[in-house]
Structures are given as C-alpha cells and as structure tokens.
Amino acid sequence: MPYSLTDLDGMSLEAAQALPFEERDRLLDLIIAAGRGQSTDVVSYRTGLYSDYFEEDLTRMLKVKAIKVLCRGTTSSGFDGLPVGENDQEQYRAAFRHVKTHLEAGKTSFSRVVTLIVFLTNMDNWPLLNEVYREFIPVPPCRAVIGTTGLAQKTLAIEIVECIAYRVAE
C-alpha cells in the first residue's frame, strides 16, 4: 500500500527511513509537488512555466533521505569549448540537454528541479526559450530568466546558471 504525506508525517524518522527506496522515492515526488506554490489564483500569461515559490519541508526531506543536487552553470558549449547549434534555439536545447546530463549523473531529473535561473543574451527570444523550456520541464520549478549583454564566450546565447533538484539516498 502506498503511503501518503499524512502517513509520512505520522511516522518517526527511523520508521520513515526504513521504508524501501522505491517508496521513499515516490514520497519525494509528493513532497516536491506539495512544496510548489503559487502566490495568487489569478492566471497570468506565465502560468505553467514556473511556480512562484518552493517550501522545502526539511522534516519530510529528512524522513525520505532526500539529497539536494546542485548543477553547475551550463552553457551550450560542448567539451571542445565550441557552442553546439547553429542558432539560438539549438543552443537553448543544447544547454538543457547538458543540464539533463548533470541531473542524470546526480540520479535525478527535470521533474525534481525546484529552482532554475537562466541568463539569455537576447531577451527578444523569450518566446523561443519558453518553447524549448516546455520540451524539457514537465513540472514548473521556481524560475528566473535574466537578460545579459554577454556570456564568457560572445557566441553563447544562454547559460543556465543555477539548477537545484532533489533525489533520494539509496
């Protein structure tokens, strides 16, 4: 029988941490979903692209043995230092694919991302970024997109400067 968050709240730390990995892993998804919030019920044009805040319930996180995964700043550059992609859209996809690689190495995924900060060199591409973002982000985390006049390499169009996600310890 799957446990609910109410069941988890009623458990001792020891009892919760003794649950099988698969159950703790499933509960982490519930904890993250319960922590995402909107500050108002008013629908804006941004709806679906991010949550307004995330409440990190440390007690619940501790009970399921959650681990915070912080990804490094990531651009569209390949390991050879050259930008991947012929245009901004391809660079955006490359940057998100690179973050996906980091998340998978950290044993987590975009569905467990709670914070994402992106720098763009061309804010006129806001709709284009959102199009690519929707391809990768199934559940909206807290997000900020900041326009900048340039990145480390002039040919770069994007840097994902912060990405925070969670996973469960095995």
Provide the fold topology:
Blueprint: H1 5-10, H2 13-17, H3 21-35, E1 36-37, E2 53-54, H4 58-63, E3 66-71, E4 74-75, H5 88-105, E5 113-120, H6 126-136, E6 142-147, E7 158-168
Parallel strand pairs: 5-6
Antiparallel strand pairs: 1-2, 3-7, 4-7, 5-7
Helix pairs in contact: 5-6
Notes on the structure:
It is a single chain. The protein has one domain: 2-Layer Sandwich (60s Ribosomal Protein L30, Chain: A), CATH 3.30.1330. The strands form two sheets. Strands 3, 4, 5, 6 and 7 form a five-stranded mixed β-sheet that branches. It has a two-stranded antiparallel ribbon with strand order 1-2. It is built from six helices and seven strands; from the N terminus they run αααββαββαβαββ. Strand 5 (113-120), helix 6 and strand 6 form a beta-alpha-beta unit. Helix content is 36%, strand content 22%. By secondary structure, the protein is of the alpha+beta class.
